[in-house]
Design brief:
- The complex is a heterodimer of chains A (113) and B (113).
- With 113 residues, chain A is mainly beta.
- Chain A contains no helices and eleven strands.
- The model of chain B has no long low-confidence stretch (mean pLDDT 95).
- The chains are: A mainly beta (113), B mainly beta (113).
- At the A-B interface, strand 4 and strand 5 of A face strand 5, strand 9 and strand 10 of B.
Chain lengths: 113, 113
C-alpha cells in the first residue's frame, strides 16, 4: 500500500462547477500538507500549504485536512478553464521539511468551457 | 526572475552513454533535489542536497549520481543510462524551513533507447 493515495482521474467538469480533489494517507505522523498544481509541460508549483488539521482558504481554493480520517481535500469554487492541470498532494512529518516530502500520483483535471 | 533552470529540456540517448542534466537556481536556496515523474508512480525523489558538499539519497537513487560543488548548481549524472531511466526529471529547490515552497524547474524528458 502506498503511503499517499490519490485518484489519478482524469476528472472533467463544466466551467463554474465546484471541484473536489482528495488524498488519503496512511502515515499518522504527517503534519504538513500541501497541494501543488502542475500545468502541462511545466514543473509543479505550490498552491496551498496547511499545517495539521483544519481548513485554509485562498481565493477560490480551500484546503481541508482531517487527520482523524487521514484524508485531505482541495476544493475549487467557480472553476475556470485555467484551472485545468494536474493537482498533486504532498505531505511531510513533523521533523522534516522538503527533504522528506511524499507526493501523491496526481489528479488530472479538465475544466470544460 | 526567480527560477530553477534545467537543461536540456529533451534528451534522447542510447544505453550506456554517460549524460549530465544540469540544474541551476538563482534564489540562494540551500536545499536542492532531483525527482523523476512516471505515470502511476508520481514524483519520486532521487537525490537531495541540504547545502554545498552535502548530498543524500532519496527513494530511487540507483543508477544516478549528483554533486553540489556550488550553492546554485546541482547536476544529475547518469553514468550508464538504461531504458528504465526513461522518464521526466525535475529539479527543485527551496530554503530550509518547513513551510518553504519547493520551486521546480520545467523538467527534462529523457528517453534511453
Amino acid at each position: 500500500q502506498k503511503e499517499v493515495e490519490q485518484d489519478p482521474g482524469p476528472l472533467s467538469v463544466p466551467e463554474g462547477a465546484i471541484v473536489s480533489l482528495n488524498c488519503t494517507y496512511s502515515n499518522s505522523a504527517f503534519q504538513y500538507f500541501m497541494w501543488y498544481r502542475q500545468y502541462s509541460r511545466k514543473g509543479p508549483e505550490l498552491l496551498m500549504y496547511t499545517y495539521s488539521s483544519g481548513n485554509k482558504e485562498d481565493g477560490r481554493f480551500t484546503a481541508q485536512v482531517d487527520k482523524s480520517s487521514k484524508y485531505i481535500s482541495l476544493f475549487i469554487r467557480d472553476s475556470q478553464p485555467s484551472d485545468s492541470a494536474t493537482y498533486l498532494c504532498a505531505m511531510a512529518g513533523p521533523n522534516f521539511g522538503n527533504e522528506k516530502l511524499t507526493f501523491g500520483t496526481g489528479t488530472r483535471l479538465t475544466i470544460i468551457p | 526572475e526567480a527560477q530553477v533552470t534545467q537543461n536540456p529540456r529533451y534528451l534522447i540517448t542510447v544505453t550506456g552513454k554517460k549524460l549530465t542534466v544540469t540544474c541551476s537556481q538563482n534564489m540562494n536556496h540551500e536545499y536542492m533535489s532531483w525527482y523523476r515523474q512516471d505515470p502511476g508512480l508520481g514524483l519520486r525523489q532521487i537525490y537531495y542536497s541540504m547545502n554545498v558538499e552535502v548530498t543524500d539519497k532519496g527513494d530511487v537513487p540507483e543508477g544516478y549520481k549528483v554533486s553540489r560543488k556550488e550553492k546554485r548548481n546541482f547536476p544529475l549524472i547518469l553514468e550508464s543510462p538504461s531504458p528504465n531511466q526513461t522518464s521526466l526529471y525535475f529539479c527543485a529547490s527551496s530554503f530550509i524551513s518547513q513551510n518553504s515552497p519547493l520551486h521546480f524547474g520545467n523538467g527534462t524528458r529523457l528517453t534511453v533507447t
